Amino acid sequence: MKDISKSFPGVKALDCVDFKLRKGEIHALMGENGAGKSTLIKVITGVYEKDAGFITLQGEPIHFKTPQEAQNKGIGTVYQEIMQCPNLTVAENMFIGRSKSLFVNWKQMNEKAAQLLESLSIPASPTQELTSCSLAVQQMIAIARTVDMDCKILILDEPTSSLDEFEVHKLFELMRELKARGVGIIFITHFLEQVYEISDRITVLRNGKLVGEYETPSLSQFELIAKMLGNELEDITKLKKHEPIVSDTSTPVYEGIGLSSAAGVRPFNFVIQKGEVNGFAGLLGSGRSESARAIFAADKVTGGEVRMKGKRVKIKTPLHAIKQGIGYLPEDRKDDGIIEDLSVRDNIILTFQVLKGFFKPFSQKQAEAFAEEYIKKLNIKTPTPSTPIRSLSGGNQQKVILARWLLTHPEYLILDEPTRGIDVGTKVEIQKLVLKLAEDGMSVTFISSEIDEMLRTCSRLIIMKDREIVGELRGEDLSENDVMSVIAEGGTNNA
Amino acid sequence: MNLSHLVLPLSVMLLLVIINLVKGADYFRITMVNGAFYGNIPNILFGASELVILSIGMTLVTAASQGQDISIGVSATITSAVFVQYVLQASEVTLLTIVVGFLLSCVVGLVIGAFNGSLVAIFKVQPMVASLILFTGGRSIAFMIDGKLSPILANDISNKIGTVIPGIPIQTPIILTVVFIALVAVLFKTTNLRLYVETVGVNPNAARLNGINPKKIIFLTFLIMGVCTAVAGFIAVNKAGRHDSVNLLKLIMMDAILAVAIGGNSLGGGKFSITGSIIGAYTIEMLNRTLLRLEIEPATIKVFKALFIIILMVVSSPIVRVYMRKALNRVRDLRKLKGVGLTGTIMSTTISAEMRDE
Q1: DSSP reduced 3-state for A55
Q2: CB contact at 8 A, A477 and A484
Q3: Per-residue DSSP letter, A42
């Protein structure tokens, strides 16, 4: 690809970007959100038409108008969100929409599927339902499908974001196998370690421009981050957390005793002081999100009592929690956070408006002023406040949700995975913001699956395992190893 | 404010006006009969009253519950049956009788709304299935309230409500519709109804986590729908002068759903435009009357209506829209290349073409 440009109303998404993929290589495409990675991919796969530039495939100039054309030329894509039919069988998912005849030869289809699964050593049987496979296996099946369609180029957009370490390892084996067969793979991820583990080359984009193409071994992680961020790098090292303003003996902002919820968390006790940043740490499924949801009454609360500043209060619904000054940024931004068709403005004012009441709408002018204020404060990149939130990048959507809660001026803010699936720059911005908020006296619970993020921001970590609190760590000498050992020890206690 | 969703209903209206003007230049002529305005336009406004009111309710129900209420015509028959019975039992019909009767029918409308609403909001029944119950059985209920007759509303006030009040040149149903629209506008101005309904319609999960109870909001839209059916039933029965439980507002929900769609609203819920639906409702009435005016045989009129709607839906579909946008961009690029001079020529040719038509 040479000199690719693509503009959207108000934004130049790609500005003369070159991109080269060689046969049988794994090429990592890196950049912050909004750097133009997704746009570039969509141009390659024919979702968008390019405004300018040339694309050649094996020396032959090509011009795709539809994704179908790209697919026919051997360009396969597996997107971040898996788009398959969950209640069909594995084999059906692999062959759906590809049959030329009206009738299906089930036996032949299942046999072919079995062969393919076998050859790529994917642990699934053709006749089982897709939902019964783990996410990683579903991901692999999607890949197998494209591979079987004779693809020369395979594009993997954030394939590992919902996989655990072992599953990632399996996926990488599959990628190496394909590489050996001569498939060129474009790999997009936010996990730097994975880039170094698997990729041969790295292309870095920033703000729609090409920064450069590098051989992976010759580029250090530090240099890579520097290239992705431009000048934002030194900020990470400058981040400095601080201890809560008040001592442990004073009345906590929030105190939950014996809380439990319908989502299956065992009854737990939890306190947070004014200006404290703490976090729930644990592996996926350990109950860290469920605990946060129990505090906010996002799931049905089944027991326990709550004190806010020493006073007993009833929190049975999210509205009760909001009224008590608790904010909750949900883990699943798309399903629980954004109101995707509504404007950025409506998304920002929503909760504050609910807090004010059904019969007291803000005037248009007031709403506009709130939106403008927070768009500026959090540096949200949106063409206008009335743009639908749907058309913003993930990081900016997350900032809008943050703005929504900050506008309600909560005393206690719960952030569940606020940095998931967003770029490094915004991650740093959010972490900085959390520390700033705490300094101003807000209590924050910060949950992240990236432990180093929590170590950087939290002064106290509550360690969870199997839906139970198994330990607590505090102090400046919190480290990843300590967290791991508590999780491990918690295991032995339970056994 | 973004008005792009009104492009479709307004252009359809414009098209219908052009067709009517081609048929006869006297389309807009308004005559004065017995101190009131009559003519094509007043007739459309008069005829569409019930549909406009029901479309407003349908828009809200659609937006919040992501489905449609198909019982509205039947419900309006029940509410108006109650109204008629109340008026008939009075020894002397005064304005008070009518007002109390109307309020009583509103209460019945609210009960019906609460019934449908609780099925949808609490028991999570699909709106269309929930309202199918009343759609199926409702006319029999109205028939029983009527006492198995088709009672006649032969009083002076009902007559005035259904036609004109002496001294006021505009037919009463038109005035009532305007008043109703104004009340709805006030409701939107003084509450967060729009924000809440749209939020619930787009993402009920997120709505709940932000302190909005989706069940309450869906229930509320059905209550509002109940009031809309009562008002529509009230106008319809006063217009007709008798209560025909079998045919009153028969199958009007089809037109109401269509009005919502023409108004640029998604039948899948979420963001909505009441203005669009209102224009959509008037457009449908205009279409009905245009087909009559073109002297199409009444037996085949529905075929033409269906054809028109199919064309409309295809033209407004996202696929055609994207294609049109691309075509437009190409024209724009061409213009840039050839300079602005071309635009002038195109415009003058269109203008002269239009003048020839007239």
Answers
A1: strand
A2: no
A3: H
Query: B311: pLDDT confidence band, cut at 50, 70 and 90?
Result: confident
Tell me what ipTM this predicted complex has.
0.84
Contacts of A354 in chain B (CB under 8 A): 192, 196, 210-212
* Buried b or exposed e, range B297-324, using 16+ CB within 10 angstroms: eeeeeeeebeebbeebeeebeeeeeeee
What's this model's pTM, rounded to 2 decimal places?
Answer: 0.76
DSSP symbol at A156:
E
B5 lies within 8 A of chain A by CB: no
Which residues in chain B touch residue A353, judged by CB atoms under 8 angstroms apart? 192, 195
Task: Measure the CA–CA gap between A235 and A243, rounded to whole angstroms.
Answer: 20
Selected residue with higher pLDDT from A12 and B161: B161
| A297 contacts chain B (CB < 8 A) | no
Contacts of B272 in chain A (CB under 8 A): none
Collect all residues of chain A within an 8 Å Cβ-Cβ radius of residue B206.
330, 335-339
Structural domain that includes position B52: 4-316
Q: Which fold has domain A237-494?
A: Rossmann fold (3.40.50)
Q: Which residues of B touch A322 (CB under 8 A)?
A: 210-211
CB atoms B195 and A355 under 8 Å:
no
B46 lies in the same domain as B170: yes
A131-143: per-residue pLDDT in tens?
777 777 777 788 8
What's the CA gap between B110 and A55, in Å, rounded?
63
> Contact B202/A339, CB-based, under 8 Å?
yes
* Binary contact (A336, B211; C-beta < 8 A): no
Q: Rounded CA gap, A376 and B188, in Å?
A: 29
Grade residue B343 by pLDDT with cuts at 50, 70 and 90: very low
Q: Which residues contact B341 (CB under 8 A, 6 or more apart)?
A: none
Q: Which of B316, B331, B349 is the last residue of a domain?
A: B316
| Band (A108; pLDDT cuts 50, 70, 90) | confident
Return the ∠ at Cα B318 (arms to B316 and B319), rounded to 5°: 105
Q: Closest Cα of chain A to B103: distance in Å?
A: 24
CA distance B164 to chain A (A): 36
**A248 CB-side CA count, 13 A:** 4
Q: What does pLDDT average to over chain A?
A: 82
B64 with B79, same domain? yes
Instruction: State the nearest Cα–Cα gap between A90 and chain B, in angstroms.
Output: 30
Nearest-by-CA chain B residue for A332: B206
**Nearest CA distance, B358 vs chain A (angstrom):** 40
Task: Specify the CATH architecture of the domain A2-230.
Answer: 3-Layer(aba) Sandwich (3.40)
Give B354 to chain A, closest Cα distance, Å.
34
Strands A52-57 and A153-157: unpaired
At B2-59, the pLDDT tens digits run 677 788 888 888 989 999 999 888 888 889 888 889 999 999 999 999 999 999 999 9
CB-based contact, B327 to chain A, within 8 Å: no
A341 touching chain B per CB within 8 A: yes
B4 reaches A (C-beta below 8 A)? no
Q: Taking 90 as the threshold, does the pLDDT of residue B218 lie above it?
A: yes
A100 residue type, one letter: K
Distance CA B182, CA B212 (A): 26
Every domain range in chain A assigned CATH 3.40.50.300? 2-230, 237-494
Nearest Cα to Cα of residue A392 among A345, A432, A429:
A345
From the list B192, B203, B213, the residue facing A340 with the nearest CB is B203
Residue B151 CB: number of other CB atoms within 10 A? Answer: 18
Whether the per-residue pLDDT at A291 is higher than 70: the answer is: yes
Which two tokens mark B268?
């899948």
Contact of A386 with chain B, judged by CB distance below 8 Å, is answered with: yes
